[in-house]
């Protein structure tokens, strides 16, 4: 019927329309050629940034007619896209086709006044909808579809994992459940864009962009939002100063170092965010850290934000990880799997401390993949050799040069499955001599540790820095023990779903198994010592699997 309808439509087209349709068809095939080419990090960032400028954030009544809502907003211009989500209320993200629609909407809105509240005259893109006529009528029963902004509960994930076919499927499942969604990514860029509106009022040429796991392809739903305030444009081109005859006065000339200038700027910016940023709460200045930062919570999006300035090397490291994450589908699946395992087994923590971080774990997985035979991903040195003219980046004296065009990197000939890779990863680091060796992604080789930190992962760009300097000996030992025990569990356990057993297997088994405190000498860990929490999870898992078997008649 679809073809019949399409044919009927073609028959009604006049000559001009037929030409237009043919041209459109040609464009579509050209578009698909472009889309089959992998986009560079900068291209993706620029697209998302431009898109975010055309977006608004609207706090909506719980019971609202989506149709009327869209009709109302369409009065201000064509809507390209929209979605709803929950966070301290119901919110809508609306993307207009044209940025001018936002000014039109702002002009049509009023500011609610309360007795003890005095609005600050700063126009934001954050609105609250109170219109009664948009409420649902009794005949409009459709509920708003809320896009998920967090991962599924562990017990649900475990049940899903037990229904997979093999460990490779399980790793892909973990990734599918945990990775950032398109909507969550849009919300991250929108949040940065809203912060840019505030900062831009004082520093109009500055840009505010996300970095870290929000953009490096390894972000998990619920991860923090790392924000970078780029003031380079504001600072201007230094070379021009030498030849010009007129110099600009600026306050920062009184700052005795770049660090002090950054601290002063961040201090002012944090005040602006605190005072003028709707929904920005818990603003904290941490200006004496190695990288000075401002922490705050953006309530409408639910993101915990870390804002830094002058941190351009971190942007390069985000791009490097983006390249690795997009080279081969196994890279992200293994990273998500390993990080999920470490999160469940309390190796990583949300609380700052001597724990191994997600960033360090990602680097360990990448290093392991560089060491496969043949390697699954190239070393940073090899990526530097592929760099083109526009890829040269020296930041504060550090060489941050590497190829940006993914299409120039030859795909690997390695065909190992994720089953093998997960097992070998656990064995590799279960036997790694952390007391002697450091991890170096630039060379893809182990090196003698330059100093005595229990875990030494060289920062690929600031090569004297250790990205896991915070980690203590106890945590390294726990990690090694856990890696050994988990490898053993994987090797002993079932490799796939079993019709006669409802025991968790593969990833589910290593996520659940209890930890030992015997320093890894014994493998008795596999004889799972069930803590109350684990026992509950197992019970619910067994119950659900049995219920399912009964439902589908597989028992
Ligand atoms: N970074 C770094 N050196 C460190 C810590 C962080 O260069 N010792 C940079 C990395 O580019 C990292 C970014 O700062 O991606 C953000 O740090 P963090 O939020 O700790 O890590 P994420 O990669 O964002 O991971 P998570 O999802 O845990 O936030
Ligand atoms: Mg982060």
Sum this structure up briefly:
This protein is an alpha+beta fold and 555 residues long. Helices cover 44% and strands 12% of the residues.
Explain what the structure shows.
It is a single chain. With 555 residues, this protein is of the alpha+beta class. The chain starts with a helix and ends with a helix.
What's the topology here?
Layout: H1 2-11, H2 15-36, H3 41-53, E1 55-60, H4 66-74, E2 79-86, E3 90-96, H5 100-108, E4 126-128, H6 154-162, H7 167-178, H8 182-200, E5 207-211, E6 225-230, H9 232-235, H10 238-243, H11 258-276, E7 280-286, E8 293-298, E9 303-309, H12 312-327, H13 329-344, H14 358-370, H15 380-385, E10 394-395, E11 398-399, H16 418-430, E12 437-440, E13 445-448, H17 473-492, H18 507-512, H19 532-552
Parallel strand pairs: 1-4, 6-9
Antiparallel strand pairs: 1-3, 2-3, 5-6, 7-8, 8-9, 10-11, 12-13
Helix pairs in contact: 3-8, 6-7, 6-19, 7-13, 13-14, 16-17
The protein binds cytidine-5'-triphosphate and magnesium ion (MG).
The site of magnesium ion has 5 residues, from loops.
- What small molecules does the structure contain? cytidine-5'-triphosphate, magnesium ion
Number of helical regions: 19
Structural class, by secondary structure, is: alpha+beta
The pLDDT mean sits at 85
Shape: globular
Computed CA radius of gyration, to the nearest angstrom:
27 Å
Q: Report how far the terminal alpha carbons are from each other.
A: 42 Å
Taking pLDDT < 50 over at least 5 consecutive residues as the criterion, the unreliable ranges are 1-27, 515-533, 545-555
Numbering strands along the chain, what is their spatial order in the largest sheet?
5-6-9-8-7
Biggest sheet overview: 5 strands, mixed
Secondary structure: helix percent: 40-55%
How big a fraction of the residues is strand? 5-15%
**Total strands:** 13
